[in-house]
From TrEMBL:
Species per Swiss-Prot/TrEMBL record: Actinokineospora bangkokensis
Compositionally biased tracts (Low complexity): 224-238
Signal sequence coordinates: 1-29
Keywords: Signal
Region Disordered, annotated ranges: 222-260
Presence of the UniProt keyword Signal in the record: yes
NCBIfam families associated with the record: choice_anch_P
Designated name of the protein: Cholesterol esterase
Length: 260
């Protein structure tokens, strides 16, 4: 602030300090609080499952995204090492003022890895998962359309989390798998195939995960500052111990009437 002190006399500056009233801050989370991917496989297959030789596959995460970036990903015509085939795979994970939202989807997928065991290739038209994290909590869901498990049996789908179909010692299939970590992070897998590696299975061991979404906990950092009371600041007196007083109109400008 610039102060113009041209007038002789005691200058009094009244400064009103206006407090800043902060609105509620947007929901905040760690940069990696949200993530998603279309598919992943880490399996060891016995000879004869997908060829004459045994096969060990670790595909990593296909079409990965995260709130730290990239926030979107997609792949078309997916042959996941012969284990899974899909027409398209997409994922997204975005942080906003409202919180974190992650999604993943697979269209027209099949599971050739189970063809010999099932007496046909299991197929599904759509697999999708999503989760949302806000200061109120973390929620998730999965969508499964036209799941055909061939000879493995039927799995009635009612939207409940963690619906299972299995063959003891051979495999377990989990639809709408929802796993909550100790820190509150929620992961939703539209479909999770576990190969259990039993000696009678003639299949192998490992995991295949399709359409996975993850959301970490989100906290709201609301900061509000109460306006401060006005303050008064007095400018320094002129040099010396005398104070300049106002001189009435018509009074002499010299002598004791002017200075006290």
């Amino acid at each position: 602030m610039r102060l113009d002190m041209r007038t002789r006399g005691t200058a009094v500056l009244s400064a009103v300090v206006v407090g800043v009233v902060g609105a509620a801050a947007p929901a905040s989370a760690e940069p990696d609080a949200g993530s998603a991917f279309g598919a992943s496989a880490r399996v060891s297959l016995l000879p004869g499952v997908l060829g004459e030789q045994g096969l060990t596959v670790d595909t990593g995460r296909l079409a990965p995204s995260s709130t730290a970036g990239p926030t979107e990903a997609s792949v078309v015509d997916v042959p996941l090492a012969g284990l899974v085939r899909a027409k398209a795979v997409t994922s997204s994970s975005v942080a906003s003022r409202a919180g974190v939202h992650s999604t993943a989807a697979i269209v027209d997928a099949s599971l050739p890895v189970l063809a010999a065991l099932a007496g046909g290739t299991p197929t599904v038209r759509t697999l999708a998962s999503e989760c949302t994290a806000t200061p109120a909590g973390v929620t998730g869901s999965a969508t499964v359309v036209d799941l055909d498990l061939a000879g493995l049996g039927r799995l009635p789908l009612d939207g409940s989390p963690n619906q299972r179909l299995g063959i003891p010692g051979v495999l377990e299939l989990v639809v709408n798998e929802q796993v909550t970590a100790a820190d509150g992070t929620l992961t939703v897998n539209a479909l999770h195939l576990r190969l259990l590696g039993g000696p009678a299975a003639q299949l192998g061991s490992g995991d295949v995960i399709l359409a996975s979404s993850t959301c970490g906990r989100v906290t709201s950092v609301a900061q509000t500052t109460t306006p401060a009371a006005p303050t008064t600041t007095t400018a320094p007196r002129p040099a010396g111990d005398r104070q300049v007083a106002q001189v009435p109109v018509g009074a002499p400008e010299t002598g004791s009437a002017g200075l006290r």
